[in-house]
Specification:
Strand order of the largest sheet: 1-2
Structural class: mainly alpha
Helix content: 55-70%
Order of helices and strands: HHHEEHH
Shape: elongated
Largest sheet: 2 strands, antiparallel
Strand content: 5-15%
């Protein structure tokens, strides 16, 4: 169970770092929605990223509301994003290959006509 939570946390950190790299001035609510986590969960992830030195908190200069912040990736954060990107892609490719194998195995239970009907079309 702890391994599953670690993967979820790692995925959330990856998504948040990626989103902040693209737009450091996103609000926490926007970030949470785009990353697929709750606002509370995002606050937890952001706090950890700031504490570890991956993200630096700055003022959002264009906002009328001076309580808004910009979340800038530090050089250490850019490196962490690259590491998490590699892990994320490796894990997702393994999941993809496992799904392909499972689909092929389950497809053997169908008559050939049905199997051909649900098979994805070549691009």
């Amino acid at each position: 169970m702890a391994g599953g939570r670690r993967k979820i946390n790692e995925d959330a950190r990856f998504r948040v770092l990626r989103l902040l790299h693209e737009d450091p001035e996103m609000s926490q609510r926007e970030l949470a929605k785009a990353a697929g986590v709750s606002v509370g969960g995002l606050h937890y992830v952001l706090s950890a990223l700031i504490e570890k030195g991956f993200v630096k908190l700055g003022n959002f200069t264009a906002a009328r509301d001076k309580r808004r912040y910009a979340y800038n990736l530090t050089p250490k954060g850019v490196t962490e994003k690259a590491v998490l990107t590699q892990k994320f892609l490796t894990r997702k490719m393994a999941e993809y290959e496992a799904l392909k194998a499972e689909i092929a195995e389950i497809g053997k239970d169908l008559p050939a006509k049905e199997s051909d009907r649900i098979r994805p079309k070549a691009r």
